[in-house]
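We include the entry.

. . .
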Amino acid sequence: MWSHDAKIAACNHDLFSLENVLQTLLLMASDDGRGQLLFGESINRAKRLLPDYLVGKRFPTIYLEFPLTGESFLDASVGYKAFPAGDGIRAPSAEGTQEMLDWFSRTAPAFPGIGCGYELDLKHKDPAKAGILFQPNRHRELVLPFCRTLGEDDKAQLYLNTADRLPAAWKPSYFGLFRGRPDAPLRIGGYLSDREMAACIKDPGRILSVFDRIGFQAYHSEMLRQLSELMAAVPDCLDFQFDVFPDGTFGDTFSLDVCFPFVQPEEMPAYLREGEAAKLMKLLTDWKIADTRLVPALEMAFAGAIPVNDDLYVYFLQPSWLKVRWIQGTLQPAKFYVLIFADSLTEKE
């Protein structure tokens, strides 16, 4: 087992690159016996496939995603807030998306709050085509141009139609296209305000009225109670996710993503165990959607810096959020999301 200092030294040499940093961060995530316990064999596919998503001089936003009970595996998402103009992506699983990235590189500077990226299924030996993620936020006018670069004009209309059906407090801000999954729905998500959460906590019937209004039927009274209880334990912000099929009907899956605030990495484990997030962690175990894997997951937080020539490269791993999901009203294993990120203190682009 490498010490953190040894890992840093391994990156501090003439062949320094973003890939060195990525591999170091993946080693750190797997440290202290976490690798096989939390990720299974998926961690090896992550080390092999994620480097192909490093483009330009900036490290993308990468989330490692893994369940807290059941089979151990790892998925990953890669996000870009900007994409270098003229650069190509070499990842085979991203085939057919270069026009999308070229459009994004031209468009993003005028819309700083938008983002796009990929969802990587690393559970299987032969991963399918990467899913596509787009966050237009409130910029509805960008949805059709984005989808058109992928030949998915119909998905744009589906997103916009769904947005019009949802109440004002539940307006979506992002969506996911899962290429390679036959008959896959469009995953649509958005953020709930503190005011809306408070109203749903006080009256779970408010959630029921939203579901009934839009035609989401895969719920029952126990799920509504759980939704309200979960909202009461949220330490920071919350977003929701529905699956919507081409005919406009909703799938039988509903998810809430519970976000953690930024806390210094050395303080994060204690914050999650004993701070504002402690009630949330207890819910996961009480509901049996997290097992003993929750303990090492909470430890996956640290930061450091790598001197490179006259520059300083900072890097960190940070628990970012967890997903609680219901299928046909029944709770599924919770999924934990850890942000891995690095950046130079010198502006490069």
Notes: The chain has 13 helices and twelve strands. Confidence is low (pLDDT under 50) at residues 1-15. The two ends are 36 Å apart (CA to CA). The CA atoms of residues 85 and 105 lie 5 Å apart.
